[in-house]
Write a structure and sequence with these properties.
By secondary structure, the chain is an alpha+beta fold. It contains 9 helices and 9 strands. Helix content is 41%, strand content 16%. The strands form 3 sheets. It has a 5-stranded antiparallel beta sheet with strand order 1-2-3-5-4, with helices on both faces. Helix 4 (163-180) crosses helix 8 and helix 5 crosses helix 6 (242-260).
C-alpha cells in the first residue's frame, strides 16, 4: 500500500484535500475516491518502474482524446503542472499517479433489465464502435512511447509441459499462431481497450461510461469485441448449460454489433473472427492463474480444477468453448 507521504504528494499534485481520500480497491492498482470542488474523482496509483510512466501517459492521452471526441469515458484530469500523470518515489518504490472524473451510474446486474439487456448491449457496442472509429484516425500528440502491440504470450512454467496442462498450452500456442498471421490494416487494427468487460463500465439510464484503460494495446478491433462478448457470457447468462450460453452469445452479439455499426463498419471477414477471439480469451483465462502455478494440484481451487477438466475435454473433442459455438 502507498504510504501517507505518497498520498499527500498525489493530493498536492492534483490539488485536492488528502483528507477526502477513501480507499476503494487494491488489485493491479491502488484505487481511491476523493472529492474536489464538490465533485467525486478517482485516484489511481500504479506501482511500476519509473520508465513505465511513458506507457501510462500514452494510455491517458488516448482516453483524453476519446472523451474530447464524444466517447463516454472517465475524463483524466491534469495535475497542477498541467500533466496527465505524476510520478513519485518513496523508499525505492515508484508510483505513477493518474486521476479521473468518477463515472455516473452502477455496475451491471443481470437480474435488472435496466442494467442488463438489449438496450445496454447496443449502447455498449456503440461506445466501442466510436472508440474504434476514433482509433483509426488517432495520432499521438507529443508522446515518444506508444502502448504495446498484441504479441504471443511467453509461458515458461515447466509444470504446464505435461498432461492435461499441456493440452491447454498447446491450444494457446496453436491459436496464437493463427492470430499472429492476421492482417493488421488500419481499418481493423489499432488502439483497443482490451478489457472492456461489464466491471469496467457503469450504466446510467442504459448509457455506458467506460473506464480502466490500463490494459489498452494495439490490437484487432474484433478482439476487443470478442473480449466484451466472452465476459458477457461468463457473467451475464442465467444458466450454465452450453445451449443457453451459445444462445445468449448469439443474441448478445446481434444487439452489440447493431450498436457498433452505427459508429464503425466491420466487414464479414472480421465478424467471422469474433468466435475465434472469444475462444482465445477463454484459453487465456487459464494462464492468468496457471502461469505462476507451483505444480501442486492442491494449490488450485476446486472451481479451477473443474474448469481445467471441462476445457481439456472440449479441446480433445475438437469443440469450441461454451458460448463460442456461434454463427455470425
Amino acid at each position: 500500500m502507498a504510504s501517507s507521504n505518497i498520498l499527500l504528494k498525489a493530493a498536492e499534485s492534483f490539488e485536492f484535500n488528502v483528507g477526502t481520500l477513501i480507499f476503494v480497491s487494491n488489485s493491479t492498482n491502488e484505487v481511491y475516491r476523493f472529492t474536489k470542488d464538490d465533485q467525486s474523482y478517482i485516484l489511481r496509483l500504479s506501482q511500476k518502474s519509473h520508465e513505465y510512466a511513458a506507457k501510462i501517459r500514452a494510455e491517458v492521452d488516448w482516453v483524453y482524446y476519446l472523451v474530447k471526441n464524444g466517447v463516454r469515458a472517465s475524463l483524466p484530469i491534469q495535475t497542477c503542472n498541467h500533466e496527465l500523470t505524476a510520478v513519485f518515489c518513496d523508499e525505492d518504490k515508484w508510483y505513477i499517479a493518474t486521476a479521473f472524473q468518477e463515472a455516473a451510474g452502477r455496475f451491471f446486474d443481470k437480474h435488472n433489465e435496466q442494467l442488463w439487456g438489449p438496450k445496454v448491449f447496443r449502447n455498449w457496442g456503440e461506445t466501442m464502435g466510436r472508440m474504434h472509429r476514433l482509433s483509426t484516425i488517432y495520432e499521438t500528440s507529443d508522446i515518444l512511447v506508444k502502448r504495446d502491440s498484441w504479441s504471443r504470450r511467453n509461458i515458461n512454467n515447466p509444470h504446464l509441459q505435461r498432461g492435461r496442462f499441456y493440452v491447454l498450452l498447446d491450444k494457446l500456442i496453436s491459436m496464437e499462431s493463427i492470430i499472429d498471421s492476421l492482417p493488421r490494416g488500419s481499418d481493423s487494427f489499432g488502439l483497443i481497450h482490451n478489457d472492456f468487460h461489464p466491471y469496467n463500465f457503469f450504466i446510467d439510464n442504459s448509457e455506458i461510461t467506460v473506464f480502466d484503460f490500463d490494459d489498452s494495446i494495439y490490437g484487432w478491433f474484433s478482439l476487443d469485441i470478442a473480449i466484451a462478448a466472452t465476459h458477457a457470457v461468463w457473467w451475464g447468462v442465467h444458466a450454465e448449460d452450453r445451449v443457453t450460453k451459445n444462445r445468449f452469445a448469439q443474441q448478445f452479439l446481434r444487439e452489440f454489433l447493431m450498436g457498433y455499426e452505427k459508429e464503425h463498419h466491420i466487414s464479414e471477414f472480421w465478424k467471422q473472427t469474433i468466435p475465434m477471439f472469444m475462444e482465445y480469451r477463454n484459453i487465456c483465462s487459464f494462464f492468468w492463474w496457471l502461469s505462476e502455478w507451483d505444480g501442486h494440484e492442491s494449490s488450485l481451487t476446486e472451481d479451477q480444477q473443474n474448469a481445467i477438466n471441462h476445457a481439456v475435454k472440449l479441446i480433445e473433442r475438437g469443440l469450441p468453448f461454451d458460448g463460442c459455438d456461434i454463427q455470425l
